[in-house]
């Protein structure tokens, strides 16, 4: 017994030392990860701030020359050094709006089918096939749109739209003019296809988070599939759906290569969806390497600044809507 007590007194300080060493090790490890994550956060903010500052500095010659008229002028003439951003802004907002209009209901519908109605053996392969669409490079979408989609629309769809809506007052303006194949409508279709996987994947994931007891209770009182989906699943997951739509809208606003191939790259505003147009990102991609002169380069940088501001306000508005939805 005496030997055991003596041995315990010998090992007690050793255990204390060991615990202190482990504690110091964990403490230093926590301090390292805290510093690393803080440095990463600061680096992101510094990069974001440096991008904004460089865009503002590059835009100064443009706004010093044209003032706020740069935002409301359609003219874009590098020969006479006259620039206005209204046509690219118009093209960016209109193509993104119609892309969301087309992709959002289709994406939610596919997500509902995959999560609620699709036979179990088909769910995984169909889901993977849709997610693979997000991994295709945008230039492939652009080439497909230029050589396959645009000729098909020019020969079969656009003439039918023009003939069908000619007698209808407002739609006759939206679907007017010669069927070029390329234009705002084709760009919106390409964008809709590109953002569809984002909406579908996120919506499907949030649909699967709905507690089974809620759906079983709804089925138990005699609700149909349609009623369960519209009265239980979608209201329960509306915040997640809005998040997916926000992500897709950000992709649509900034998409460059695919839109450049099929929009026509014309700096003008037309009431027809079939007319060639341009977007901010397409204008920058097309003309930046050919920009000669400080004012021309500054005008393109100013377009980048405008796209930055538009994206920031759209995402901020979406975030505000999400916060209000979560507060209800």
The CATH top-level class label: Mainly Alpha
Would you give the CATH topology? MetI-like fold
Report the CATH architecture: Orthogonal Bundle
Spans where pLDDT lies below 50 across 5 or more residues:
none
N-to-C CA distance: 69 Å
Order of helices and strands: HHEEHHHHHHHHHHH
Number of strands: 2
- What's the number of domains? 1
| Helical content (DSSP H or I, runs of 4+) | over 70%
Radius of gyration: 28 Å
Strand content: under 5%
Number of helical segments?
13
Judging from the principal axes of the Cα atoms, what is the shape? flat
Kindly describe this structure.
It is a multi-pass membrane protein. Keywords: Cell inner membrane, Cell membrane, Membrane, Phosphate transport, Transmembrane, Transmembrane helix, Transport. This is Phosphate transport system permease protein. By secondary structure, this protein is mostly helical. The protein has a single domain, classed as MetI-like fold (Orthogonal Bundle), CATH 1.10.3720. It is 79% helix and 1% strand. The protein has helices at 2-66, 69-72, 86-117, 120-135, 138-165, 171-174, 184-207, 212-220, 225-236, 238-254, 257-262, 280-287, 294-327, and strands at residues 76-77, 82-83. The chain has a two-stranded antiparallel ribbon with strand order 1-2. Helix 3 (86-117) packs across helix 12 (280-287) and helix 4 (120-135) crosses helix 7. The chain is flat. The N and C termini lie far apart (69 Å). The mean pLDDT is 86.
